[in-house]
């Protein structure tokens, strides 16, 4: 858990009540209309007396740790006195100091968000936001598209999972943080952002122009094939509404008496941990869904919740490079328990846990505190989960409106259903 903050005088007199806590995975999540990709994270709020509400000073709490902020104040005063473009706002320097403190960890998934950024973050988690509708992360020290959301401006413009973002409106992304990238990509409905991207397998980078829009997230879609008796459930994200959407869908699905299930998690960048556990619980009779391992070696296990809906029929899960975080939790649980075969491509590989502290001035602190493990104890961070059956989905397939991954899933299910007869 994060260390206590110094006891300091308030920067502003305005305070708000804090209380409720919840647990989430992310997204990842759909932050700032484009999305940070974070992996699993805990979210809770911090009492006002623990919040940094003014510039850090030599508080008694830190004297015991022999921390001297003299140098900090020397730099602060020099900036205030000598910087060419005066005046420099205290609040800007303060929040910049907090960002620098967290950035010094060299962990792209630990970050400090100021109140404005934090509000956009929580708005996006609700499933409605303005932007391009894509998740971004960092791979090999380079900004990368985790996945475009289904039906989003990003997807329509041709952005794909795995695309490396080289520049944003001519701003080079080398050394750029997720926060900086999101700030540049985010914008009002109707405006355009140009991303210069490099796609593996291609010889040159290309510009993709994307017109920002209001993104309304529908996290669950499903279809039923009367001929085969197979139901396909597509989960696009794990957000606040996913559980209720899935429950409503399952009520209708059960009336069809399906004989096989395809769970499509392709290009699903993640979401709330509790949602991931509840989704997995619909397909598992019992057992561990996911575990967290902390720096002291301790492990916390999360088991299935409630009564499952679809357990007595063969199942295939579709995954690809854009399946991340909560998607990997569900896919890993179903694979490890022998409940489903995975078909597609290796998943993204986001298996760290962030502690998300909501501070009383509206800022938030997100810091990596653990790694999550599949039920069999596999740590997938940076590795991903390999499918049982690897199947490519090429640009030519997409252009021809073919889906060999889904076709393979149906083939496997039909064989399993035939053997059960």
From TrEMBL:
Keywords: Hydrolase, Membrane, Protease, Serine protease, Transmembrane, Transmembrane helix
Signal peptide: none
Example of a GO cellular component annotation carried by this entry: outer membrane-bounded periplasmic space
Gene Ontology MF, one: serine-type peptidase activity
Keyword Membrane attached: yes
All residue ranges annotated as the PDZ domain in the record: 127-186
UniProt keyword Protease present: yes
CDD domains: cpPDZ_CPP-like (cd06782), Peptidase_S41_CPP (cd07560)
Transmembrane segments: 21-41
GO terms for biological process, alphabetical: proteolysis; signal transduction
Pfam families from the UniProt entry: CtpB_N-like, PDZ_6, Peptidase_S41
InterPro entries, A to Z: ClpP/crotonase-like_dom_sf, CtpA/B_N, PDZ, PDZ_6, PDZ_sf, Peptidase_S41A, Tail-specific_protease
Record SUPFAM superfamilies: ClpP/crotonase (SSF52096), PDZ domain-like (SSF50156)
PANTHER family per the UniProt record, alphabetical: CARBOXY-TERMINAL PROCESSING PROTEASE CTPA, TAIL-SPECIFIC PROTEASE
Family per record: Belongs to the peptidase S41A family.
Protein name, as recorded: PDZ domain-containing protein
Record lineage: Bacteria, Candidatus Kerfeldiibacteriota
């Amino acid at each position: 858990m994060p260390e206590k903050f110094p006891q300091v005088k308030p920067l502003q007199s305005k305070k708000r009540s804090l209380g409720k806590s919840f647990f989430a995975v992310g997204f990842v999540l759909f932050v700032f209309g484009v999305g940070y990709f974070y992996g699993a994270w805990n979210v809770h709020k911090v009492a006002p007396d623990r919040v940094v509400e003014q510039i850090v000073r030599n508080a008694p709490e830190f004297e015991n740790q022999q921390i001297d902020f003299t140098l900090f104040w020397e730099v602060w005063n020099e900036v205030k006195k000598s910087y060419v473009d005066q005046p420099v706002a205290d609040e800007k320097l303060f929040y910049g100091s907090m960002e620098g403190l967290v950035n010094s960890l060299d962990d792209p998934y630990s970050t400090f968000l100021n109140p404005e950024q934090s509000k956009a973050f929580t708005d996006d988690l609700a499933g409605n936001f303005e932007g391009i509708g894509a998740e971004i992360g960092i791979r090999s020290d380079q900004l990368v598209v985790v996945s475009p959301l289904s039906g989003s401006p990003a997807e329509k413009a041709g952005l794909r999972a795995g695309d490396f973002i080289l520049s944003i409106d001519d701003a080079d992304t080398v050394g750029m943080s997720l926060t900086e990238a999101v700030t540049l990509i985010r914008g009002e409905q109707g405006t355009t952002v140009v991303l210069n991207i490099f796609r593996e397998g291609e010889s040159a980078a290309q510009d993709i122009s994307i017109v920002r829009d209001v993104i309304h997230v529908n996290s669950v879609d499903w279809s039923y094939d009367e001929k085969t008796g197979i139901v396909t459930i597509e989960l696009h994200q794990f957000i606040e509404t996913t559980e209720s959407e899935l429950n409503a869908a399952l009520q209708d699905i059960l009336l069809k008496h399906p004989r096989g299930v395809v769970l499509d998690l392709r290009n699903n960048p993640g979401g709330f941990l509790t949602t991931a556990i509840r989704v997995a619980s619909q397909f598992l009779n019992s057992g561990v869904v996911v575990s967290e391992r902390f720096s002291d070696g301790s492990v916390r296990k999360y088991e299935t919740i409630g009564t499952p809906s679809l357990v007595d029929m063969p199942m295939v899960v579709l995954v690809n490079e854009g399946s991340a975080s909560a998607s990997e939790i569900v896919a890993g649980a179903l694979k490890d328990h022998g409940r489903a075969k995975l078909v597609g491509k290796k998943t993204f590989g986001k298996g760290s846990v962030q502690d998300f502290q909501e501070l009383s001035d509206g800022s938030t602190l997100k810091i990596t505190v653990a790694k999550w493990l599949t039920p069999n104890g596999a740590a997938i961070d940076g590795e991903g989960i390999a499918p049982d059956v690897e199947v490519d989905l090429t640009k030519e397939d997409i252009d021809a409106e073919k889906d060999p991954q889904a076709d393979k899933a149906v083939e496997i299910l039909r064989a399993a259903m035939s053997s059960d007869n």
